[in-house]
Amino acid sequence: MSTFDVLIQGARVVDGTGNPWFYGDVALAGDTIAAITPAGQIDPGRAAERVDGAGRVVCPGFIDILSHSILPLMIDGRSLSKITQGVTTEIMGEGWTPAPFGGNIDDLPKHPFLTLIPDWAAKMKGWTAFRQWLEAMIEHGVSPNIGSFLGGGTLREYGKGMALGPATADELAVMRQVMREAMAAGAFGISHALIYPPSAFIAIDELVDICRVVGEFGGLYITHIRSEADGLIEGIQEAIEIGRQANVPVEIYHLKAAGKRNWPKMAQVIDIINAARAEGIDVTADMYPYPAAGTALASILPPWAEADGRFFDNLRDPEMRAKIRAEALNPSGDWEALADLCGPDGVMPVGFQQPENRAYAGQRLSEIAALRGQEWIDAAFDLFLSEEQPIDTIYFMMDEENLKRQLQLPWLTIGTDAGGLDPAWAKPVGPYHPRAYGSYPRILGKYVRDEKVLPLEDAIRKMSGAVAQRLGLLDRGLLRPGFLADVVIFDPATIGDLATFEEPHQLSVGIHDVWVNGTRVLQAGRHTGAKPGRIVDGPGRRG
After folding, report:
1. What does the pLDDT look like over 167-201, one tens digit per residue?
2. Which residues are registered as beta bridge partners of 6?
């Protein structure tokens, strides 16, 4: 009888700690890493299956701390574009989670993916407790492991709806209780996206109040800061101050300096974070390896345009439309005006669903406006009203040199800021940011192998061990005997991304084999169809 199910022989072992690679053998038994030795020291006869690792790297599976796979996993639990990047664990919840549904939440957000999953959309309204959606995913079957923060926008809407202004004492009491319940149910903490309503309406005192609850459970405050552009320094300082006052660790989502005029600020941002860490405040950050951001087209408009859920009504009202137009063209400075940062030439809407608008996908907003004979802001207004749902958009506004500098920071990790897609069903929905398909192979191909921005071992650490440490996952993220067998084999000579902004729906190359909890989900670059993913829990449920 075999001792091991799988023996990976003679690969370069990169264990996720940042230590130098070595030639070794890795044995898997059941769902566990059973042994790691120098090459040739495990008898091949003890293994049911032997995998030749010659010329390849074996490393821990990658942990995506910035995943948007909630809806994609409902469509297709395989998470094809993530598994083919080597992602074995997806941590979701930036700003929004589908549960708990209730309180002042009276409807689901509009999203084109929801049209593909009407049965799931009906289920969501019955998820009154945070963990229910995760359990439903596992019952459905998913290839990667899954976990989540509580969406801060969801929490705020539960307590106060989409209204402007501070929460009342009673509303705060409700939100604190919902937060406690989510932490006890396995949330990793609270996740806010402070440029989007309703999180954009929250003042620091309320954020601190909720984060104190998170801190009681040993959780994390993770945030898309209030500004990544003109108010970048203030946004970083606010995040750090929340950590200081609430005594919680802080993670800054997708660190960037947006808009050419703000590129020089990155040096100061790094100094501020280093100083906070020297002071004893636990603040770190993550990023994706592209010089363009991706979010909704509505980010060209002030957040108050969406107050009380009246976005489309406001655009139809001549007086409100004129008010929104004036603010978008001449921003007051108290919101993140993305069109002001990169100009309409740097705004590329891609997520059109209406047939009459599909031809505009991939063109810049300035080009669309010219085709329609309108100013860019008026073209945008009419497109919003035509679509009546979010329009995914790419904003070209970051600096490649800053990106490289960030990759070298010891406290920075990697995430995708995207969902796991399959071109077969995602391409008909429309274009998407290439980070959904290429983030991790792009790091390993472009920035490690070709440009030598950072060493292989540190890149792997930023994708695995460092992320596991940040999340408190004590049995994943490293190649270590006794750890769960989330394992990746890739070819360092060929690994790379193929997805581009013009042709995004292309799977990466170079990842050969992937195991999740000891089950092979990718073999010779092809998905096996297996769905062995499990829930990974935050500190409130683990403890």
Report:
1. 999 999 999 999 999 999 999 999 999 999 999 99
2. 28, 49
